[in-house]
Amino acid sequence: MVSSDQRRRQLAREKFERQQRRREEARRKAKRRNAVVAAGLAVVVAAGGAAYLSVGLADGDSRDDASQQAAPTPTPAESESSVPEPKMAIDAKGSYKMSLDTDRGAVAFTMDAAKTPRTVNSFKHLADKGFFDGTKCHRLTTEGIFVLQCGDPKGDGTGGPGYTIPDENLTALGKPAADGKVTYPAGTVAMANTGQPNSGGSQFFLVYKDSKLPPSYTPFGKIDEAGLSVVEAVGAAGVVGGATDGAPAKAVTVKKAAVSKG
């Protein structure tokens, strides 16, 4: 006959075993849930990564084929406007100069407001606010196209001003060739975008050697001779790790940016 003490011990043991089974089942469920979440995140990261890694790798817009390398990085953070585009506050027929005081030397370029009024207006607005001060030129491409990309406050290719501006002056570089591309001459300054029309923000690229690209990137500036030499030197130093597309080995920081008329 089972004593009351033995019965209590048996019940306690059964209760403990039930608790252990519940804990084990909870752990299995959590593991499965985490695996699903991780898989979902992997898909998101992969999709997001494709936005950068395949920039210029497919459709000749912000994607190319692998042999032709990448176009300027798309800027997903700028694809949705959260603040309004600044009101027009420049002389839409005037000429403006943007001066970048970088730790590699001065880079200046002229901007024609008659051809790209909203782009110039946006850049003056941002420069006056100190938006570009302390930012890094986060991306250099040394094969296929030859550009140094700047203007991202985050320094990773995803930042922007919180609004977008429309494409302008896209026919300035002539009729596209059979491959759908035009030549962006050395010294050109043009807008980066998300790969979609009218999706520019604050990121721009400096062309240091003639580069063939689709006419999808607003050309709005011309670098002066001294500034082009600075960018060429950055290009000659290459990309971190010996790659052909990535952070420049000779890092570039914009210490101060200013826009003036004339």
TrEMBL record:
Stretches assigned to the PPIase cyclophilin-type domain: 105-259
Disordered: where is this region? 1-34, 61-86
Looking up CDD domains in the UniProt record yields: cyclophilin (cd00317)
Stretches with biased composition (Low complexity): 67-86
Biased composition, class Basic and acidic residues, residue ranges: 1-27
Keywords assigned: Isomerase
UniProt KW Isomerase keyword: yes
GO terms for MF: peptidyl-prolyl cis-trans isomerase activity
Q: Which InterPro entries match?
A: Cyclophilin-like_dom_sf, Cyclophilin-type_PPIase_dom, Cyclophilin_A-like
Function of the molecule: PPIases accelerate the folding of proteins. It catalyzes the cis-trans isomerization of proline imidic peptide bonds in oligopeptides.
Identification of the protein by name: Peptidyl-prolyl cis-trans isomerase B (Cyclophilin B)
Q: From which source organism is this entry?
A: Streptomyces wuyuanensis
